[in-house]
Specification:
The complex is a heterodimer of chains A (121) and B (252). Chain A is α/β, with parallel strands linked by helices and 121 residues long. Chain A has five helices and five strands; from the N terminus they run βαβαβαβαβα. In chain B, the strands form two sheets. Chain B has a five-stranded mixed β-sheet, with helices on one face. A two-stranded antiparallel sheet of chain B has the order 1-3. Chain B is globular. The model of chain B has no long low-confidence stretch (mean pLDDT 87). The chains are: A alpha/beta (121), B alpha+beta (252).
């Protein structure tokens, strides 16, 4: 079973995301804060990471940077999943090596799962 | 002299206000989107039966609620574009920009969107190096976003969108081609009008403000450029944007 790490500080949204992804046949682990995320990213067996940008302590960009700098995680696909869409944020995510950029409100959870599926193909 | 100073001062103040307003809109948009995401996802769960079977009447109401949430999300997206456009229309910030990079960035921005629709975005890169062009980066990005967004939106499932970039005679030409629903003869003259949406576009995508191409044309013209489209029968649509590289004759 493929493993998805969800990094999302909004507990309610995180619950909905995790529920849908689990139901679609994935193993799910979650991190609610930037700090927690920094520890979880190196857990073995993670196939893909869903990353929110505004998080307490460390923001999504710092986490993405860390993922790309760490030998064991540098090739894991990362979907930036946020409601920010300013040019500066987009560029930063791209420069730091995000695989995909999705604006939460523009997608349904099924579409999110479809994207995960496609990336992991 | 005193009058001029006074006007200058007033002008600065107004600029500041618009800047603050624009920031305020970005922040509220983020908050709105977060709440709207929750609403949209919950309605979708009801519709999909994830939370138990609905009666016909319940289903009808939830469908309405779902579409309303989609409509609000689209309005928030338009509000952001408009706010950007207004903010920068006060004073376009012309700098030398790498247009090829701006196109690549736009393609990245839509990576999620294309995956969702099964549409493929293909950038046909120029054969020769394209010199930097003098333009307002944010505004040119709005142009690219609008054209690419439309191409994806009005593509059919598993469609292909081709973006090309060329330079000739001191100008660059960008084209965005889709093999989607196309533009009907009778709608051609209205395509760039404010709030206009073609009937076949509404049928394909219920939600939209009819502002995208209007704003796009405005921006292109402020750069001393041209925008036009071609749609040979039943083969989709191609939009072209031509911009001067040096931009000596900027119309503000």
């Amino acid at each position: 079973m493929k493993k998805v790490l969800i990094i999302e500080d909004d507990e309610f949204l995180q619950g909905l995301e995790a529920g849908k992804i689990k139901k679609s046949g994935y193993d799910v682990i979650v991190a609610l804060t930037g700090e927690e995320a920094m520890q979880r990213i190196t857990e073995p067996g993670i196939d893909i990471i869903l990353l929110d940008l505004i998080l307490p302590k460390f923001d999504g960009f710092e986490i993405l940077k860390k993922i790309r700098e760490t030998e064991s995680t540098k090739n894991i696909p990362v979907i930036v999943f946020s409601n920010l869409s300013e040019e500066a944020e987009l560029k930063k995510a791209q420069d730091l090596g995000a695989t995909q950029f999705m604006i939460k409100s523009n997608f349904t959870l099924d579409e999110l799962v479809d994207n995960i599926k496609k990336i992991l193909q | 002299m005193e009058e001029i100073e006074k006007l200058k001062c007033e002008n600065e103040k107004l600029k500041k206000i618009i800047e603050v307003k624009s920031d305020l809109i970005s922040i509220s948009a983020h908050q709105l989107r977060t709440s709207l995401s929750a609403l949209k996802w919950i309605f979708k769960m009801f519709i999909d039966g994830d939370l138990g079977k609905l009666t016909n009447e319940q289903n009808n109401f939830i469908q309405k609620a779902y579409h309303s949430s989609e409509k609000m999300i689209s309005l928030v997206n338009d509000l952001l574009t408009m706010s950007h456009a207004e903010y920068t229309s006060i004073e376009l910030n012309f700098k030398e920009e790498d247009i090829e990079f701006l196109i690549e960035q736009t393609i990245f921005e839509f990576s999620g969107e294309t995956n969702k629709k099964g549409v493929e975005l293909i950038f046909i890169k120029p054969e020769h190096h394209i010199p930097p062009i003098r333009c307002d980066k944010i505004m040119v990005q709005v142009v690219l976003q609008n054209l690419v967004e439309n191409a994806i939106k009005y593509s059919n499932q598993d469609g292909k969108v081709f973006i090309s970039l060329n330079a000739k005679d001191e100008r660059i030409e960008i084209s965005v081609h889709d093999n989607g629903i196309g533009i009907k003869e009778e709608d051609r003259e209205n395509m760039f009008k404010k709030f206009f949406r073609a009937p076949n576009a509404i049928e394909k995508e219920n939600i939209g403000s009819g502002l995208g191409l209007f704003i796009t044309k405005n921006i292109v013209e402020k750069h001393g450029g041209n925008i036009w489209f071609e749609n040979p029968e039943n083969t989709g649509t191609t939009f072209f944007v031509s911009l001067p590289i040096e931009n000596k004759n900027i119309i503000i």
